[in-house]
Design brief:
- The complex is a heterodimer of chains A (256) and B (280).
- Chain A is built from 11 helices and no strands.
- Chain A is an all-alpha fold and 256 residues long.
- In chain A, α6 packs parallel to α9 (186-194), α9 runs antiparallel to α10 (203-228) and α10 runs antiparallel to α11.
- Chain A is globular, with a radius of gyration of 26 Å.
- Chain B is mostly helical and 280 residues long.
- Chain B is 56% helix and 3% strand.
- Chain B is built from 10 helices and 2 strands, in the order ααααββαααααα.
- Chain B has helices at 43-50, 53-57, 60-72, 84-95, 130-149, 155-181, 190-198, 200-213, 218-244, 250-272; strands at residues 108-111, 114-117.
- Chain B has a two-stranded antiparallel ribbon.
- In chain B, α5 crosses α6 (155-181), α5 (130-149) runs parallel beside α7 and α5 (130-149) packs parallel to α8 (200-213).
- Classes of the chains: A mainly alpha (256), B mainly alpha (280).
- Chain B: The chain crosses the membrane at residues 129-151, 157-178, 190-210, 216-234, 255-276.
- Chain B: Belongs to the YIF1 family.
- Chain B: InterPro entries: Yif1_fam (IPR005578).
- Chain B: Residues 20-34 have a biased composition (Pro residues).
- Chain B: It holds the Pfam family YIF1.
Chain lengths: 256, 280
């Protein structure tokens, strides 16, 4: 299963005893797919990739991967074994279970769970954006830049309108606003998927469907925005109209 | 005539009615997206409230800049103090100005030694920026819809419609501003004029909606909209003109007002004609 590379063991000077020298040493990252070594830093019988190390032979055999692994692991300070490295998704800040929970909370049009949206993230909206672009591509429209631009502009618009209406105690921040606008695009994504199957001539069906999904989006977005930021309770209808405009705009892209 | 607040504002505010724009207590203000609450009518109260920190926060140069900005660009927060009832009543006034039985002057109140107007919640004649912004957005969306129904929709066409709408708004602002300037003083706040100019988009939305629903209704709705917008602007600008003007040359005022009303016709016909190329 795991193959040891046939290289001579490289022995590094034991600087691990003193704390000062430890700072100078780069962190040694093991080669992937190898057995983790015994955790004594003095005699390391494996090939480790060090950015400025004297082991030139290791550098040549490391290839392009060496720099990346040691640069990413040189920020951490812990022990050099593979299991202690942070998983890639966590390091990127993408939490798939959270994204799935948030997406599922919007799938039910009648009861929206607001607590799950408290910490905003932008990776869910990016997935939904890519899904929308994919469905538009399947319909023959290449609109990647357009949709991204409209998401940005409409989230700025909603941010301005909400904070102006809420006055002194309005505390919606742009990150949360973009996250909410992005997540509530889910019904529009569903609309674009469904409208791929609507036959060509039946225009009225498309408009009715679009109306239903836009109303779903609007309800989700306005409920979430009002519940997650202060100061919006008296202005529900006004904010809902702003959300309605935003999602009608996106549905125009889908229908026509 | 229109009472937007349920109970009278003199009563203690238990019902969660939003506070008026001038802060009654020197709380630390939240940062707002544009402008800042330090300019505008409440600034004196805020500065006195901040006390010793006032001089530190406003360095001498920034105070100069802020006072200059506040001269040209009044506090936008004031224009967004609206609620549902205000929006409904204001839309009724803008779309059917003949039916408004009350007076058209704004209610003013003395605050901090200066005379300032009551915010839109308390005064149906005060301009607000929420309705113009939403009306503009509705116009763009409806225009896109109407383009799509004729098969000519594309995102670039929508961008051109947006630009066309902005140019139309700008032209309307210029019209009002020039008519104010030609009387010798143009000291009405810029955002007031932007708000008044933006009210034309409400009638325009109605016309475009009519065009979508039934093509021939457009030819009835556009003259109606032009007329209503003209009457609304005349009735609104009349107190502004008479307040700002120095010399009391009444015939010139009236000619200007008639000109403003007549200029609505070409402007609205141009804006209402929705096509792919944005000039005509």
């Amino acid at each position: 299963m795991t193959k040891d590379f046939a290289v001579p063991p490289v022995v590094f000077p034991t600087g691990g005893s003193s704390g000062g020298a430890n700072v100078q040493q780069r962190r040694f990252a093991p080669i992937p797919f190898q057995q983790p070594p015994p955790s004594s830093s003095s005699q390391i019988p494996f090939l480790s990739f060090n950015m400025g190390s004297a082991a030139a032979s290791s550098a040549t055999q490391a290839g392009p991967f060496g720099g990346t692994i040691s640069s990413s692991s040189s920020f951490g300070g812990g022990s050099p074994s593979f299991e202690d490295e942070e998983p890639l998704l966590d390091e990127l800040g993408i939490h798939p279970d959270q994204i799935w929970k948030k997406t599922r909370s919007i799938l039910n049009p009648f009861r929206i769970n607001q607590t799950v949206h408290k910490d905003s993230d932008l990776s869910g909206p990016i997935f939904l954006y890519l899904a929308l672009c994919l469905f538009q591509l399947l319909a023959g429209k290449i609109q990647f830049g357009v949709i991204l631009g409209w998401i940005v502009v409409s989230s700025i618009f909603l941010y301005v309108v909400f904070n102006m209406l809420a006055g002194r105690n309005g505390n919606l921040n742009l990150h949360t606003c973009t996250s909410l606008v992005g997540y509530c695009l889910l019904p529009v994504v569903v609309l674009s998927a469904v409208s791929l199957f609507v036959p060509q001539g039946a225009g009225v069906v498309k408009y009715v469907l679009a109306g239903v999904f836009v109303l779903w989006s609007t309800r989700a977005c306005s409920t979430l925005v009002v519940s997650l930021a202060d100061g919006g309770e008296e202005h529900r209808g006004l904010i809902a109209y702003a959300c309605f405009l935003i999602y009608t705009l996106f549905s125009l892209l889908v229908i026509f | 005539m229109y009472n937007n607040m349920g109970p009278q504002p003199g009563m203690p505010m238990h019902q969660g009615i939003p506070q008026p724009g001038m802060p009654m207590h020197p709380a630390i203000p939240q940062p707002s997206p544009f402008g800042n609450p330090f300019s505008g009518p409440g600034s004196g109260l805020i500065r006195s409230g901040l006390g010793a920190y006032g001089e530190k926060i406003f360095g001498s140069s920034s105070e100069y800049v802020q006072s200059n900005i506040s001269r040209y660009f009044s506090d936008p927060q004031y224009y967004f103090q609206v609620n549902d009832q205000y929006v409904r009543n204001k839309l009724k006034i803008v779309l059917f100005p003949f039916l408004h039985r009350g007076h058209w002057t704004r209610i003013s109140e003395p605050v901090g030694g200066r005379l300032s107007y009551k915010p839109p919640i308390y005064d149906i004649n005060a301009p607000d920026l929420y309705i113009p912004l939403m009306a503009f957005g509705t116009y763009v969306v409806l225009a896109g819809l109407s383009l799509g129904l004729y098969g000519k929709f594309s995102p670039e066409a929508l961008n051109w419609l947006f630009v066309k709408g902005m140019v139309g708004w700008f032209l309307q602002v210029m019209l009002l501003k020039i008519s104010l300037l030609s009387l010798g003083s143009g000291e009405a706040p810029l955002l007031d004029i932007v708000a008044y100019a933006g009210y034309t988009f409400t009638g325009l939305c109605l016309a475009v909606l009519g065009k979508i629903i039934w093509g021939y209704s457009y030819y009835v709705l556009i003259p109606w909209t032009c007329l209503c917008t003209g009457v609304f602007l005349v009735k609104t600008m009349k107190p502004v003109l008479f307040a700002e003007a120095r010399s009391y040359d009444s015939s010139r005022h009236h000619y200007l007002l008639i000109f403003v009303a007549l200029a609505q016709f070409p402007l609205l016909i141009w804006l209402g004609n929705i096509s792919v190329n944005w000039l005509f």
